[in-house]
Inverse folding.
């Protein structure tokens, strides 16, 4: 009797300790990032750091504005490329494909989701960059390639989340539209899709998070010049790339400035997570 | 109206066709270019700049993933058990765990890399090492394990548990004997997902595990081998591709990576099917 | 695909139906009719050789125990069964003497034959947009026209006074009875000729049910109504004609009073007296 109560108590303590690990991890991540990054930001000066247009650590210039803009450009480009195609593909899988077609395509989407980003980057480097170089001599690794590649990489995220949202729309909405004489396309696009709107929004936000956070694939195809790109064919460096490219050899304030870049990225992601939760909550109503 | 419908229909088909084309292009690109370069010399135990062997990276991947999962799976499953089976619904602690778990899931891997470097490599003084890399990956995949296990446990009908309680079993026994076994396929699916992320990860490992192409000396040096730097297949591919000197070997590495992903997807699909069979039966 | 195959089988049946109709119907001309209608889901035969007429501007009630095929028949009248995989229809469904299954445009058929479902199914959008959905589908674009249609439809569904001040509110915020009357308004907005009601009051409370029954009695002046109900008192209260179904066949059909007070078939007598099963 006593030993079983002891066992139950121990189990409860162990399980709750395991649950606490998530909380501890987030606290530690915040702590280490902020402790190492914020002093650098203060030393450089917050406006100089966030809005400075020149990143030249050798000369003590630490402006990450080009990288902030770069991350935004690349992400917007990825959304323009990947979201329409992804949503349409999700609509196809949910409402147009026959059972056999869906059985064929859905595992393919899962495979796309599983392919490591470095393989995407390799594909971009070997196939896409030379194509751009062929079309526009003198150019190659660029904002354009990065946006196209990231657009491809967010496809599976958009498709999976959007399809789940579409599949969850009650059948009675679709039937109701048909019973009014609407054809299949109108019933889907004017009733089913709006009914799934908050889920579709969540898909897009999740994809934005992925695109902003992607590192390796972008490094391999973006050119990485720490300058605000003037055209689609110019090189671009993202926040993630800035960290990954220089962390290997950085020291002192340079190193702390890179951690501070991580802080900016982290805050950006937190904002997106908050937005995502708001979108989900609205959908849960 | 009719014309608009036709346009919409073709757009939908185009979206699906584009996705299929991308899939075929990438897998085709890797397989066609890579399979011819899968030579025996790529699988020699020691890496030299002559053989460019991927064997150390392959072993490194296995060790890294195994270590990371060894840490993440017990903790993740335990956390999920607490959330589903023990915690009073809606308590503040549960809300905090849920919120942090969601936050962890959204954090980009490069941030995990930074964190791992600052904590494990520098603060704890482990240096670039197998252990630091595995710990970083463990934190990264923890929310994946927690979420999938939670979902699997919540899908277990309450009747299973009530049956156990009705026989006078304690909560621990009910969880171990009734809930966990029927959630096992779902948990397996989560573990496979986590494994996939470990295998494909680069950004979190560059500054925690480093890029040394050698098999950690666990056999010779024992636990001290945990502090050797090593690279995984994905890191190997990144290094080869960015150096640009061994593109053929990079193709071959990509094939091995892709094959691993395909096998993992197959296992995950099997696990899903098992869940469905159970739900029907 | 299944639909194309069955068209050929039905061609021969056309033309027989009006003759059959004349023999069984009283004065009103038949708005819709089904002749030798059969329906199978895979191996299961849901309807067998059903012959019925639905006279213009009358309410026809379809009654019978659950699973007897009455809802299936209703869903043949606007071809909602087309959505069901493995469903095969034989025989013919006639609207104004034209074979509904040979209409090139099923959407036009569904515009002319409206439907109200068992569960109220307003779309998750505003009340106005719900009612305007059908007219917009069929090409009405001008704001003034839409306003006029929305008001008329809501008036016809006897719910205008309750909703006129909240047309922009989400329809999902309405009570179940209001939602169902909104769905009726939505169906009326495309000016259908026939209205199908599939146990449309079974999910509602008695007060809402009474309102909808009253509404159906008014709608009869302009529309042909076919309603499925499991409530025999409801059939008695609102319908002009009743058809009693059992295991996919029509046992008896005729004026409601006759079916309820002088049933010719013993099974009908048992069912309407509540002695069935």
């Amino acid at each position: 009797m006593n030993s079983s109560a002891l066992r139950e108590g121990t189990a409860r303590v162990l399980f709750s300790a395991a649950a606490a690990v998530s909380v501890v991890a987030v606290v530690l991540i915040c702590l280490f990032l902020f402790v190492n990054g914020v002093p650098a930001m203060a030393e450089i000066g917050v406006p100089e750091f966030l809005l400075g247009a020149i990143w030249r650590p050798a000369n003590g210039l630490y402006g990450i504005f080009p990288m902030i803009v770069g991350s935004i450009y690349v992400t917007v480009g990825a959304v323009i490329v990947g979201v329409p195609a992804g949503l349409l593909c999700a609509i196809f899988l949910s409402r147009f494909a026959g059972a056999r077609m869906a059985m064929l395509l859905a595992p393919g989407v899962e495979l796309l989701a599983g392919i490591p980003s470095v393989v995407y980057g390799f594909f971009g480097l070997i196939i896409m960059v030379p194509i751009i170089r062929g079309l526009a001599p003198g150019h190659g690794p660029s904002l354009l390639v990065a946006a196209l590649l990231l657009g491809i990489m967010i496809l599976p995220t958009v498709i999976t989340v959007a399809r789940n949202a579409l599949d969850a729309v009650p059948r009675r909405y679709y039937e109701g539209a048909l019973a009014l004489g609407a054809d299949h396309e109108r019933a889907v696009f004017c009733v089913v899709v709006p009914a799934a709107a908050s889920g579709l929004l969540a898909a897009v936000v999740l994809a934005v998070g992925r695109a902003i956070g992607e590192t390796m694939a972008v490094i391999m195809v973006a050119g990485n010049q720490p300058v605000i790109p003037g055209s689609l064919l110019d090189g671009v460096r993202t926040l993630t790339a800035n960290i990954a490219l220089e962390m290997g050899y950085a020291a002192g304030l340079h190193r702390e400035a890179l951690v501070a870049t991580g802080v900016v990225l982290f805050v950006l992601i937190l904002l997106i997570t908050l937005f995502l939760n708001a979108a989900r909550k609205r959908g849960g109503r | 109206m009719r014309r608009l419908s036709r346009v919409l229909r073709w757009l939908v088909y185009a979206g699906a066709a584009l996705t299929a084309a991308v899939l075929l292009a990438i897998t085709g690109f890797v397989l066609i270019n890579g399979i011819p370069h899968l030579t025996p010399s790529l699988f020699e135990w020691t890496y030299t700049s002559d053989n460019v062997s991927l064997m150390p990276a392959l072993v490194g991947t296995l060790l890294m993933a195994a270590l990371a999962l060894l840490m993440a799976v017990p903790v993740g499953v335990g956390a999920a058990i607490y959330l589903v089976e023990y915690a009073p619904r809606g308590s503040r602690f549960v809300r905090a765990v849920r919120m942090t778990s969601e936050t962890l899931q959204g954090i980009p891997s490069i941030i995990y890399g930074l964190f791992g470097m600052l904590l494990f490599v520098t603060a704890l003084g482990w240096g670039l090492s197998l252990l630091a890399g595995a710990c970083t990956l463990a934190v990264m995949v923890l929310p994946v394990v927690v979420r999938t296990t939670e979902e699997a446990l919540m899908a277990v009908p309450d009747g299973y548990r009530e049956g156990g309680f009705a026989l006078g079993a304690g909560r621990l026994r009910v969880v171990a004997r009734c809930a966990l076994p029927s959630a096992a396929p779902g948990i397996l699916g989560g573990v496979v997902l986590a494994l996939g992320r470990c295998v494909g990860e680069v950004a979190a490992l560059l500054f925690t595990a480093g890029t040394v192409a050698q098999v950690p000396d666990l056999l010779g040096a024992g636990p001290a081998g945990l502090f050797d730097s090593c690279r995984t297949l994905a890191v190997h591919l990144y290094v080869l591709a960015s150096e640009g000197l061994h593109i053929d070997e990079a193709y071959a590495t990509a094939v091995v990576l892709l094959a691993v992903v395909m096998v993992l997807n197959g296992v995950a699909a099997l696990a899903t099917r098992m869940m469905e069979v159970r739900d029907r039966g | 695909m299944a639909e194309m195959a069955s068209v050929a089988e039905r061609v021969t049946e056309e033309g027989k139906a009006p003759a059959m109709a004349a023999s069984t119907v009283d004065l009103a001309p038949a708005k819709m009719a089904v002749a030798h209608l059969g329906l199978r889901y895979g191996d299961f035969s849901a309807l067998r050789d059903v012959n019925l007429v639905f006279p213009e501007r009358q309410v026809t009630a379809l009654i019978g125990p659950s699973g007897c095929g009455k809802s299936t028949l209703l869903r043949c009248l606007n071809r909602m069964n087309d959505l069901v995989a493995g469903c095969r229809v034989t025989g013919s469904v006639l609207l104004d003497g034209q074979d509904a299954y040979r209409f090139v445009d099923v959407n036009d058929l569904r515009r002319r034959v409206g439907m109200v479902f068992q569960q109220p199914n307003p779309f998750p959008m505003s009340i106005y947009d719900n009612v305007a959905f059908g007219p917009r589908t069929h090409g009405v674009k001008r704001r003034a026209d839409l306003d006029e249609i929305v008001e008329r439809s809501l008036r016809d569904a006897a719910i205008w006074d309750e909703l006129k001040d909240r047309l922009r509110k989400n329809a999902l915020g309405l009570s179940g009875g209001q939602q169902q009357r909104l769905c009726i308004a939505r169906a009326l907005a495309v000016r259908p000729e026939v209205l199908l009601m599939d146990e449309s009051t079974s999910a509602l409370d008695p007060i809402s049910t009474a309102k909808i029954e009253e509404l159906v009695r008014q709608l009869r002046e302009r529309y042909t109504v076919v309603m499925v109900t499991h409530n025999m008192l409801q059939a008695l209260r609102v319908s002009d004609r009743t058809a009693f179904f059992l295991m996919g066949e029509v046992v008896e059909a005729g004026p409601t009073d006759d079916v309820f007070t002088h049933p010719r078939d013993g099974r009908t007598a048992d069912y309407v007296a509540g002695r069935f099963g």
